Amino acid sequence: MKKLSVLLGLWVLVLANLAFANAVATSVSGTVQVATGAAAPRLLRQGDTVRQGDTVSTGAGSSAVLKFEDGQVAALTANSRLTVATFEYNAQAGTGSVLLSLLNGGMRAITGLIGRNSPSRVTYRAGTATIGIRGTDVTIVTSFGNVVVSVTEGLISFSFGGQTISVPAGQGVNAKTDGTFQQGAASQIAQQLQATPEGQQMLNLLNGVQGLEGVIGEAATSPVNTTRSATPNPSSPTGSTGGGNASTR
């Protein structure tokens, strides 16, 4: 009986370590909101925390950069919406589980300790696409079900329309709602996007994410600080600038 009590105590401790995992907004520019479940959205400010189940939304000309407790970075360009569907982290073991769902807009994600130690436990979703990682720095944009990804570092598995392909660094994918997609060099994908108004919209999102490179770099190299409450502090600064208006590179 005593042994059972000890095991139960250890299990509760593990669950507690996972339950308190969260992210901090290291940079907020413009109008950014966060909503927990069905609750009314509230303003997100630099230094506020974001937890599992929260949805972060950026307005026009706005952006946000989140740094998770395991060191992962997720940056959102203007007019984007991201749900932290799962974020569980055991700091002692350096393991956990991540599922980020990009509902619309653009995101750049750089994996942290969970991705390095347990890459199969990190997944991103955008539209109907599912993206697995292998130590990855990836940009994902989605609009009206269309999905474009560009891999800067590492390797991703891209599942879309019943097919799964591997996409290495330097390449990208342009996936359309009709189930077709093209894979090639990231520069080739960008050229393809220029051919249609819908593609140009996706390219604008990609450029918006690229415009956040400076604040993303700051977040990636800064220490993790998740001590702030999720309740916004009206006196906190609005953070570094970095909206979605970068020019095409």
From TrEMBL:
Transmembrane segments: none
Statement: the UniProt record of this protein carries the keyword Amino-acid biosynthesis: no
UniProt signal peptide: 1-21
Record field: compositional bias (Gly residues): 240-249
Region Disordered, annotated ranges: 222-249
Domain spans labelled FecR protein: 54-156
Superkingdom, natural source: Bacteria
Keyword entries, A-Z: Signal
PANTHER family, per database record: FECR PROTEIN DOMAIN-CONTAINING PROTEIN (PTHR38731:SF1), LIPL45-RELATED LIPOPROTEIN-RELATED (PTHR38731)
Name the UniProt record assigns to this protein: FecR protein domain-containing protein
